[in-house]
Structures are given as C-alpha cells and as structure tokens.
From TrEMBL:
GO terms for biological process: proteolysis. This is Uncharacterized protein LOC106171861. Residues 1-18 form the signal peptide. The keyword Protease applies. The lineage of its organism: Eukaryota, Metazoa, Spiralia, Lophotrochozoa, Brachiopoda. PROSITE patterns: SUBTILASE (PS51892), SUBTILASE_ASP (PS00136), SUBTILASE_HIS (PS00137), SUBTILASE_SER (PS00138). Transmembrane segments: none annotated. The active site is at 159 (charge relay system), 198 (charge relay system), 352 (charge relay system). It comes from Lingula anatina (Brachiopod).
Length: 440
C-alpha cells in the first residue's frame, strides 16, 4: 500500500525544486480552533482549482490508508483577492507534507487568531505627550496608537547632534548627515555625537524606538549647534542648503526640525526657501512668553510654528504665542533620550520639545502620502487638529485701554498706541492629533 501511495503522489503532484514552507503560529495561544486548519497560498500564475483538485486526490488516498482522519478536508473555502489566491485545508501533517511538494503552492500557513489592534503601552508619566496627541479629549488611556510609522521618510534634526549609540536609536535609523551628503562641512564636529544632549532628546521625540512619534522614520543628525548650544546663522543656512540639495538628489520625502531660535530675516528666508523647494520645516515657537512672529525661524511664513502645552491642556508658561503659531503640541516635562548615557532618559521642557512631536507627525503623514507637498502637510495638520482644547493662549486682539488711546490701538496705529496696552494677536487654538480615530 505504501508503495502504491508513493506512486500516486509522484504522479499527481509535480515535484518542486524548493518545498513550500509551512508557517506555524509563534505562540500556542494564537492558534485558531484545533490547530489543524491551514491556509494555502497558491502562486499567482497557478490555477487554484487544479491545485485543490490535486490536493483532494491525495487526501482521498491518505484517508483510505488511515493516514488522515475522516474530518480532513481540502478546499472547503477558496479566496481570491485580485491575483492572490488561497484555499483552506483541515488535516494532519501527512497531507501537509504532500502538498509542500506542489510546484503551484507558495506557502502553507497555520490559521491563527488576530486581535483588536493594540496600542503601545505608556508606562511612564513623562511620555504623557505621546498619550495626549492620539486623544481628542484630555482623558488619557496610557496608550499610543498613531496612524502610520513614518517609514521611508527622512527627519533632519538641525540641532546639537544625535548620540546615535543610544539604545532608543539602535535599529540603524539614526545617522550622521555627513555619511549621506559628503559636502556638509560639520562646523561643530561629527553630527553623530552630542555633547549637549538637546538634539538627542529632540530626535527621540521625533522617532525614538520607545519615546518617539514616528518609530520607523530615518533620523538624520545635522549638527548646526555646538555642544554649548549655539550656532551661527551662516552655518544653519548652509545646513539648510545642503539638506534641500540632498532631498532633491535622493528624491526622498523629508522634514526639517529646528528646535532653535533667534532673530533675523536670513534664517526666515532660508526656511521659507526650503519649504518652497518641497521640504517641510517645523520650528519651535520660542520660550520667551512673547509673540512668536518676532523670532526666527518661528516667524517665517512658510514653516510650521509650534507652541507648547502642559499635561493639563494649558499654555506652557514659557511658550511664545500669536498669529504665527500654526499648531500646539506637548512641551512641558517631556521624557526623552539622555545623550551619552547608553539607555537613560531625561525630562525637559520647552517649545523645543513641542516641535519634534509635530515633526514626527509630519513623518507619519509623509510615510503614507509620499507625494504630499508642504502645503498638503499644513492642510493635514490643520484639518486633523483638535480645536479649542488648550487654555491660556491669547484669544483676542482687542486692546485694554481707556480713551483717547483706545482709538489708535483699535486701528493698530503703533505710533500712538503704547505697546504695553496692546494684547497679543490671537493664537490659533489647534492641538496636534495623530490618532487612528478621525472624529472631531
């Protein structure tokens, strides 16, 4: 009988040079039913009905010899999605072994259970920002469940460098810009080192393995600030030029994060030019509790300017504000990677911490919309934002003064309206949202 069976199998199943693999559940708890149901993936150019027919011939012989039980089955369910073709079998190992030698079968996979999509657990209060930006309300659920992961997107961190050896980057995603673009001069030493810590913290919020928004984004260290935390306008503009040149030649989507600031028109002009060249620029609003329009690059018209909020959904006391602000994000007591500690973390506050939440969000969007322009990015941020949930930001342009000065102030005539009597311009009350629930 065994000799006859071998002849039958050889005649009905074309022998394959490479056997189709059998893929089993990684955990016994994930197995569906009794564990004997398998999904057979047929090669795209094969006739699924012929494969099922051959399988049934083999099964009938195996059942006749007692090597498969009476409840065994081949092809009780057939599924086709475009060119992808599948059918189910319910059997023991003997049939599996025979089907592995069918040239028209790509693989055989044990039927397993799938679950409601799990979020990333948030087990540290310092990561409250991640927990908050995927929620519409202030009630947090200790989870982070964003839409997308930023794969295929470059996030250029113009800062004090990145400690690429930190454990939160140990998937090879954090690299020195010099390694990608040799023309970059690195005015303050290798971008892959960070003697200050600011850039490392920022990068971990953009896309760290455990502390980041976009956990598959490519983090590119562009060291434009010294270990003392300062850098020249010339150096920063040169870096922006190099980043834009690289983005063009590589034909990859990217976002620039600048958690830095000062005053001057040159940085604003360079930042606007980068955006017009197709690279979204995210900038910190500044930490002076002042009008962001007076700072650079926060006041540049084309950038995404980010103000900071607290874990109580209020304006951070230090945050700049005003009409130049595009969006608000968490920026007080934010946990991030601690440079040169190996795997440590540190809590920092500032609009420098708010901006990378948004840069990470931009990476999420670009990862799923690779043809999006910077205008599309802003529209996505605006349209998706949770409105009017952050308290404490100026919401009125009306002056508080008595006649006759109130007439000048109401008309915005600076020459006769003392600046101390003018309330700051209203801040758009848009709060960053990256959750999978699109409800308003």
């Amino acid at each position: 009988m065994k000799a006859q069976l071998f002849v039958l199998i050889a005649a009905t199943v074309a022998f394959a040079s490479g056997r189709a693999p059998v893929l089993r559940a990684a955990r016994s708890s994930d197995v569906a039913g009794d564990g004997r149901t398998y999904i057979v993936k047929v090669k795209d150019n094969a006739d699924v009905n012929r494969v099922i027919m051959r399988g049934r011939v083999v099964l009938n012989r195996l059942m006749a010899s007692g090597e498969e039980p009476s409840d065994a089955d081949v092809g009780s369910r057939k599924m086709e999605i475009g060119n992808a073709k599948f059918f189910t079998i319910h059997a023991n190992s003997r049939l599996l072994e025979a089907l592995q030698d069918d040239d028209d079968i790509e693989f055989i996979e044990q039927d397993t259970l799938l679950y409601t999509a799990a979020c990333v657990p948030i087990d540290n209060s310092g990561l409250w920002g991640l927990d908050r930006i995927d929620q519409r309300s202030g009630t947090r659920d200790q989870c982070f469940d964003p839409v997308g992961d930023g794969a295929g997107v470059d996030a250029f961190i113009l800062d004090t460098g990145i400690d690429v050896a930190h454990s939160d980057f140990r998937t090879g995603r954090a690299v020195d810009f010099k390694d990608l673009y040799s023309a970059f001069s690195e005015p303050y030493g290798p971008s892959s080192s960070d003697g200050n810590g600011h850039g490392t913290h920022v990068a971990s919020t953009v896309g760290g393995n455990t502390m980041g928004v976009a956990r598959a984004v490519n983090l590119v260290a562009v060291k434009v600030l010294s270990d003392q935390g300062s850098g020249s306008t010339t150096g920063i503009i040169g870096a922006i030029e190099d980043v834009v040149a690289y983005a063009r030649t590589s034909n990859r989507k990217g976002v620039i994060n600048m958690s830095l600031g000062g005053t001057g028109s040159s940085i604003n002009a360079a930042s606007n030019a980068a955006v017009q060249a197709g690279v979204t620029v995210v900038a910190a609003a500044g930490n002076s509790n002042d009008d962001a329009c007076g700072y650079s690059p926060a006041g540049a018209s084309e950038v995404v300017c980010v103000a900071a909020s607290t874990n109580q959904d209020a304006k951070a006391s230090f945050s700049n504000y005003g009409s130049c602000v595009d969006i608000i994000a968490p920026g007080q007591s934010i946990l991030g990677a601690d440079a040169n500690s190996g795997s440590g973390s540190v809590s920092l506050s500032g609009t420098s911490m708010a901006a990378p939440h948004v840069a990470g969000a931009v990476a999420l969007f670009l990862g799923s919309s690779p043809n999006a322009t910077p205008d599309d990015v802003k529209s996505w941020l605006y349209d998706g934002a949770t409105m009017d949930v952050i308290s404490g930001f100026p919401g009125s342009t009306q002056p508080t003064t008595a006649p006759p000065e109130h007439i000048c102030c109401a008309l915005d005539w600076d020459f006769c309206c003392p600046s101390s009597l003018v309330r700051p311009m209203a801040t758009p009350n848009r709060f960053l949202f990256v959750g999978s629930d699109g409800s308003k």
